[in-house]
Amino acid sequence: MRTFDGWLRPPRLRSGEGVDDDRHATWLELFFDLVFVVAVAELAHTLSAHLSVAGVLGFVALFVPVWWAWIGSTFYATRFDTDDVEYRLLTAVEIFGVIALAVNIHDGLGSTSAGFALAYAGVRGVLVFKYYRAMRHIPEARPLTTRFARGFGLAALIWFASAFVPVPYRFGLWAIGLAVDFGTPISAGTLHAELPPHPSHLPERFGLFTIIVLGEAIVGVVGGIAAQEWTATSVLIGAFGTAIAFSLWWIYFDNHDGSAVRAAQAEGRIWTYQEWLYLHLPLVVGLTAAGVGVLHVLSGDLAAPLPPAERWLLCGSLALCLATLGLLHRTTLECAGDLRPGAGASLYRFGAAGFVLLVALVGGSLPPVALVGLLALACAAQVGADLRAREPEAVASSTD
User: What is residue 286's predicted lDDT score, i.e. its pLDDT?
Assistant: First the structure.
């Protein structure tokens, strides 16, 4: 039977070499990620209701702090999580904060912007308390934990103060707060190599979040078909939309590992590791927007060409995903010391992104089924290119 003393354990460093080699996401982390499903869904609904340049910019402006709230908790957990009662209760408070973020997203740049700012400041405030707790109990981590506690604490105070400042000055404080938030870890330099994130746990968490966002594309397919009568055209477009999501899943996870984190630890390649980290932001933004694009295709007039805003939303977001996947693939293989195959794969991704943008540019007269079919073909071709690139590896392994 567990004693009371066993319920309260101080933070301990869990990212060192040989520590928790087989570590996976905990049930609490999975639950925490699930809460972000609601926030991502609210972001998608907001974009769906405002298909314009201003709407896209507003969607991105709200997406960044939501994603950064997830990043903060994830990076703390990968280094210091002990899953004791105090940590669980602090995470519960964070969950309430994320729920408050989601509730205030619907008009997060308007009437609910003050509530959004307070919710974000609350989530970050809990993170700051966690870092002060780690600073007290883990002396060797104090250079990093002190830096993070002070930097993130300053940013949280700026966000809190912004709730009491009128619009548009409130958004200026948001920009300053995010600059401090992002600048704190970016400027930490070699501290990342001295206390690197866990090389298997962190990529798993990023993969789980990516799957959450990919789920929005499937939600778009289901919601769109539900709004239409079951016809050959609607089913075919739904199949194409599912094929796009499945292809993006394939090419992301077939090239997803912890080599960037290991390179930061073993070789001090901090910038490459940070490039891998921050490239996930445009990826999840693009995936969420692509899901909204599929929804609008399926819920519109399937016999008429797509309106320009919807065509560019779908094609632009998919091009962003493909280009980002190309950069991620290149970064991963470069960290693994295998640049030449990575460069080739990146060119395939960039070429597909260019093709998708070309479809957006000249495909104004295409019926929706043809346009989405071309996009699905471009994504499926990436899977074929990856399989073909791995043929020599399969042949070599079979002859060993």
Answer: 95
